[in-house]
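This section describes the prediction task in plain terms. A model, or a person checking by hand, is given the sequence of a single protein chain and must write out its three-dimensional structure as a string of tokens. No templates, partner chains or ligands are provided. The sample shown here is typical of the held-out split.
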Amino acid sequence: MKNDTITAPRGFLAAGLACGIKKSGKSDLALLVCPLGAKAAAVFTTNKIVSAAVTVSKEHIKSRSISAVVVNSGNANACTGQKGLKNAITMCKQTAGEIEIAPHNVMVASTGIIGEQLPISKIVKGISKAAEKLSASASAGLDFAKAIMTTDTKPKQAVRQINLESRATSHESRIIIAGAVKGAGMIGPNMATTLCFITTDAAISKLLLGKALKAAIGNSLNKLTVDGHQSTNDTAIILASGLAGNRPIVSRCPRYKKFTDALADLCDDLVKQMAMDAEGATRMFKVVVKGAATKADAMKAARAIADYPLVKCAVNGGDPNWGRIICAVGSAGVKLNLNKLSCKLGNITVFKDGVPRKFDVKKASKAVSQKEHTITVDLGAGNCDDFCYGCDLSAEYVMINADYHT
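The expected answer:
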């Protein structure tokens, strides 16, 4: 069986099961273990209200080595006070005891309902059972991906294999990078995504691993907005076992560039899977903003378009309503030149130099009705550009979130 899960890189074991957090009885507890220890890096939500898991993991990521990640879904363990913090620490201690490591070598992540205490006794028992199931198999990796889901309708995974060396050497040069992500709503992060876990067998320094992760998340998962709302639990973690046998990456050399390119490509794959599985989504789109006075203006305008409910509704209906796009840009608070302002839907120019252009409405409607299309806006105010991913807004989104707590 081909392994396209987080256990594909050498040195990783995983497990996922149901321990009773979710009333539905679905999987809700996951373990990821690197028995020999891994270099690790992480990025977290910049929301000022954070879960107990984020608080604990921010401290533990400072450790020289991380050997495990324990994750629960169905309960965010956010706004739960000192008891919630104690429960997050207990999750780390229980995991550490099962695999005989120190608690500070364990990362913890949670996702789900805010404001409810974890059923910690069920979780402690679940961790013990999960530890017994740990495996490097593809099925174990899939179990992990399923156990971290909340309103997701399917697991989201990706794998990349690359040769770091440009010529044959005595060292093994093939490395593997794999990732699993969950997230379908409450997505509009600034420093991470919902929950994202990445493994690699590359030998790389902790410093460069952190830089690579931050860049990859910043240019992929961090560009996605489903509803413009940032979670209290957003966490992205990467673990590097170093077991590929490659010459360690300790500088910004060509091998580092190959690694970062592969990591970015993997994250871009994951973000598109998230967009297409967003709550109630039927299609996704990419907003490209050009001609901005600053990079910040370009990002601000792109996100304003992707977040604008009327634009998202138009995409849902396959309506080439460029007026809503221009309206979103005008309210974004960015510098623009109306006499040079332009907009394209796919390859069709619908607005140019501040005035509407004649276009084939049927062709434009077909363009925005695809599973994926691009909206391009030129602000005519400079030379900076940026992009953002978005998805349509459907009636199902409202239904899902209206019923979420119950």
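For orientation: The radius of gyration is 22 Å.
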